[in-house]
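Hi everyone,

Forwarding the result from last night's run.
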Amino acid sequence: MKFHKNVATAIVAAGVALTLGSAGTASASSHYSVPGGQVKFTSKGEILKVWDTKAGKTGIHVVVDDLSAKNPTMDTCTVKGKGKSKTCDMKFTNGHKLQIDVFSYTKLSDHSTRKLVASWKDKA
């Protein structure tokens, strides 16, 4: 019985890891549902769209880092308020590897209120 419980726990943990967005390298357009919102990244043109789908005091903050640049570059996109969305036009060099991290937050200027809810790699 203990073995079955451990297997069930491992399956649930694997499902949670997928929910958190450990999705590996994404394709031309990546669309993820994350706790409290949604994020869509389109490689062509480096367009990021973020939706806040949860009522309350939290928002969605996305950080995109260019992992291929000699001098590291980054861009962000933030939205707060249920039903609100924001589209951000990001400028990265085509073919560069990008790291995309999605956070929920209550106070943007206070890093201690940020919680990582998804993370994946993509290409510009």
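The helical segments are 2-19.

Cheers,
N.
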